[in-house]
Each structure stands twice: as structure tokens, then as C-alpha cells.
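Morning, I've got a small favour to ask if you have a moment. I've been staring at a protein lately and its backbone has me curious. You're getting the sequence in one-letter code plus the fold written as C-alpha cells. I've dropped the whole record in just underneath, so have a look:
=====
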Amino acid sequence: MGRRVVVTGMGAITPIGLSVEEFWQSVKEGKTGFAPITKFDASDFKCHIAAEVKGFEGKNYMDPKTAKRMELFSQFAVAAAKEAIEDSGIDLEQEDPYRVGCAIGSGIGSLQAMEREHKKLLEKGPNRINPLFVPMMISNMAAGNVSIQFGLKGKSINLVTACATGTNTIGEAFRAIQYGEADVMAAGGTEASVSPIGIAGFTALTALSTVDDPEKCSLPFDKNRSGFVMGEGSCVVILEELEHAKARNAHIYAEVVGYGCSSDAYHITSPEESGAGAARAMTNAIEDAGIQPEDVFYINAHGTGTHHNDLFETRAIKLAFGSHAEKLKINSTKSMVGHLLGAAGAIEFVTCVKELQEGYLHRTVGYTTPDEEIDLDYCKEPVTGEFEYALSNSLGFGGHNASLLIAKYRG
């Protein structure tokens, strides 16, 4: 057993709120962020709906000149990290900067930069490409920019595991602290892929919902589900070694107690049909925490709203928990914010922490019609009461499975 790791700060830029508290209030109200795409003319596209971040201005979180040198996914990450660091109350000037690290991932980086500069290449030639094109586009620049902005000189990594990215980054930050590589880590995910090539590409995969009704476009676990809705935003949390947090009298939100991963080794987009890979990630996280499956009451599911994911994730839960699966409460935060790709696991982690803190499980918004074999309790209504653990799942293209187990902090 390594060192204990706790959550001391959280930050969020989401389609339903530009701070953790605004996001959480929207979650409790069952608000959704789905609306017609405004970032480009989508009239010729099959998909017309997205969960865009509204009202965000990078210059409100950093120097305007600095903001101009960052693509949107990096701006989101810096903004979320700023809130998380301030929320944690940590005085970075009093810390050894080489013991404070950063693990922030993005599944894609900047498609907008790629589109913009490729158009310039075709129309004006190679000599007109922006000199900053590459460092603005590549996905590690979210972690790089956060490290630069806040002087975090410790371990700095960007993991890319598609839709499991946010969960893997937090998990690897947890491990880094657990085994002594850092005392504090800013960890999470960020994404800004509401762009023509992003929407067209995921539509071509038949992964996106093409339903135009904002109330029916994202229906995880429902019989009428039709795919996921592209979301955008960022969530960053501050993870801290327990004794380090206690020494500075930090407010502790929750404790990270387990992290499990696996690979389906099956297909580039489809989960393995039995759910065995995802089940193994869950059981690995539970074993890592040293608890029993029966101790878990709640799962924040990957729950994308695609036909394959929701069916195979349900099978995975049944494999991992056996008969106890029928007693679990399961919900999908994507029913409100859509799928934030590389940031999905991070926003769902923050949701789990708030749910543990308040004893409130949000409903899976829009879920009304059960489907054959998808027959567990997916929280048609909110659930209130005390519970000790939250298990958060993320499943990524390529067969990446990751689960995090979060516990109420008990001292």
C-alpha cells in the first residue's frame, strides 16, 4: 500500500457551467447543454446538435496575449486548473515546484488549428503556415501550458487513451503521488472538438446522435438511444498526499483509493462484447482499494448512449459484480453534458466527488424506456442518502478501459 491520496481542489469548464459550483447546481437541476451547433454552419451535416461551452473567454483566466497563443482546449485546461488551484488553497510559492506535477490529457488536441492551417496550406502555400501551428495543435500542450502558467516543475504528462483519457490521467497522477514521485498533482482532461472535421468524422463512424431534439439526442441506457452528443470543456482536480494536505490544513473533498485498467484487445471502436475487459478494470480498481464488490453502491458509467457501449458496459457490470449488480445505482453524466472525449473521465470524477460529498446521485436525464438486457438501475430519479464509494468508468476507442474508485474521506 502506497501513500494515501486525497482531493483538495477542483475546477471545471463545462457546457452547463463555467465553475464546479455552477456545473454542480446545473446537474442537480437536471439541466442539459444540448443545442444547435453555433461554432460553424452545420446545415449540410447529418448532426446538428452539440454541447458547446457558452460564455467562455480565455482572457478572463489569463493574460489576453497568452490566451491568443493557445488553442481552445489549452485555454479550457488553464481555466479549470486556475479554479482548482485556487480552490485547493495551496500556496505554490511555498512548495518545492519539483514536487508539484501535472497530468492533463486531451484525446485529440486542436482540430481547429489543423483545419485552419491546412486550408492556408492549400490556398496560400507552405510558407504561410503559422510558426506556432505545431505547438498550438499537439495534445500535450494542455499539460504544458498549465505547467508553464502555474510553475509546476514536477512530473508533467499527457496521456491519450481516447475517451478514457481523463480517467487515466487522474489515475496516473494518483499513482505518482502514491509511490512518491510527487506530493501534489494537477490532473484531468480537456477537449474542444466541436469543429467541422470533428463532427463529420464521428458522424461517419455512426457514433454521433443525429436527433435534432435537445431533449432526446442523448439518452444513455435508454431503448431509444441513438449515439452520443459531442461535448467540450475541461475538468482539473488537485490530488495531494494526505499528510501534505493535513500539514497545510487543506480542505479534503474525498480520497482516491483505487485505480484499475485493462485492454479489450478486440476492436478499434467497439468494446469487447462480453464486457470482460471493462469488468477487469472495475475489479482491478476494487482490489486496489482493498474492498469487496459488495461495498460499492454506485457507479458513474461511461454511458455514452451508443448501442454497443451501453449494452456491453451493462454486461461488464454484471460480470464484475454478479448478483450484486442488481443493487447498484448507475447513472450517466453524459445525459447532461454529452461526451467530452478526453475530458469525460475528469468531469465524471468531479461529479462523483460532489455526489459523495452531498449524498446525492443525479438522475440519468432523459432515461425513460428500458431496453432488453440493459436492465439495471440507471437512476430514473435522483437518489439521496449516505454512501461510501463511487466507481467511475471510462472506455476508449482502441479498447482502453479505466476505472477509478473514490471514497468519502474518513480521516
Summary: The longest helix spans residues 72-88. The chain has 13 helices and 14 strands. The CA atoms of residues 117 and 129 lie 6 Å apart. The mean pLDDT is 97.
